[in-house]
Amino acid sequence: MWFSNVSFSLAFFYLVNILVKNRTQHKLPLAEEWKWRNVYVSWVHSLISATWTLLCVAIYPELFHGLIYHINYFTYLCITFATGYFVYDFLDLCFEGKVLTLWELTAHHIAVVSMFIYNVVTKAQIGFSLIALSVEVNSVFLHWRKLLQMEKTPFSSKHYVIIKYLNLATFIVFRGGPLTIITVSLFTLHEHVSLVYLVCVSISMVVMDIINIVLLYRFIKSDILRDLRPGTKKSSRAKHLNDRNGNVMDLEHDSN
């Protein structure tokens, strides 16, 4: 059952990719067109998975007391759906030759896919997977922020300011929180999992910690420190006016 569920999810996101491609093809340079598609598909996944995960936690709060052995069809299907997306996105990186240039994304997907596939095949640790998947609440705003940047939305606009602070707030809660829960649980529940699994999860956690530190640094540099630099708002407003007059606006965008 897990293979068919993962395959359905992979096919679903491939279809979303095609739909976005049909709308952006010939309207953007090739490199930008792929980036737009990739971020948009990721945003769609985040919206669905974040909502699904929050529903799982709200309906089945007992999973916090059964991170290893909790399982039902609703929560299990949520993890297989997310697994299908991560497999799809990893394959997309491979086919587009982005594996090395987007190393953070590659490392993230390898760490997540390896653990999620093991969990859905063995039908265990579903609670752990749901806790890990709750980071998608932050990813909703992370990808939203990137889409605004790609649309050349001024950094001083109300829309961008709201999203950037929601991104930072949910980053702390929905990335820091789950990583803390999983890390603590590795020590308290280590006797209930195999040594190999414990080592693999520990390595995955180290990878995730490094990636999140890099992301947080980029957010602070891009969204907080920029506002503290003298003349930044005036410069940003001037660039936006130039863009409205038909000139190309070249804003500093991070690579998230």
Automatic annotation (TrEMBL):
The cross-references to InterPro entries, in alphabetical order and at most eight, read: TLC-dom, TLCD
Q: Which domain of life is it from?
A: Eukaryota
Enumerate the UniProt keywords alphabetically. Membrane, Transmembrane, Transmembrane helix
Keyword Transmembrane helix annotated:
yes
Under the heading PROSITE patterns, the entry gives: TLC (PS50922)
Tell me which GO cellular component terms the UniProt record holds: plasma membrane
Q: Where is the TLC domain?
A: 31-225
Question: Which parts of the chain span the membrane according to its record?
Answer: 6-22, 43-61, 67-88, 100-118, 124-144, 165-189, 195-220
The subcellular location is: Membrane
The Gene Ontology biological process annotation of the record reads: membrane assembly; phospholipid homeostasis; plasma membrane organization; regulation of membrane lipid distribution
Membrane topology per the entry is: Multi-pass membrane protein
Q: What is its main location?
A: membrane
The protein's matches in PANTHER family, at most eight in alphabetical order, are given as: CT120 PROTEIN, TLC DOMAIN-CONTAINING PROTEIN
| Protein name, UniProt field | TLC domain-containing protein
Upper taxonomic lineage: Eukaryota, Metazoa, Spiralia, Lophotrochozoa, Mollusca
The gene it comes from is 106054194
